[in-house]
Design brief:
alpha+beta; 41% helix; two-stranded antiparallel ribbon; Lipoprotein, putative; lipoprotein
Length: 100
């Protein structure tokens, strides 16, 4: 019976360890990606008449919902604090961004 309790306590400890703060560099990377600007609204449309005299049309829209506006630097700071338990090592506006 004591062995069952020991395994239970060990499993609970491992589960709670996963809930702790993550490393600051990893939190900064994830938060910078989540706060980065998204692609704007884009779309295409077509309209015309077929050789049989029928009318055809179509519309295709693609859009990305933003984070509700606001200051991305403040959102970055809140995100890093929530994930790492401390403030970022540098402001959002100085974080290098990948190309492409």
């Amino acid at each position: 019976m004591a062995r069952v309790w020991a395994y239970g306590i060990a499993a609970a400890g491992l589960a709670l360890a996963g809930c702790g703060p993550m490393a600051l560099p990893e939190a900064e990377r994830l938060c910078a990606e989540s706060v980065a600007p998204k692609a704007p609204l884009s779309g295409e449309g077509r309209m015309g008449v077929t050789s049989g005299g029928d009318f055809e049309s179509g519309v295709k829209l693609t859009f990305t919902m933003g984070s509700g506006g606001g200051d991305p630097g403040a959102a970055y700071d809140r995100c890093v604090r929530a994930r790492a338990g401390q403030g970022p090592s540098r402001p959002y506006y100085t974080v290098p961004r990948g190309r492409g």
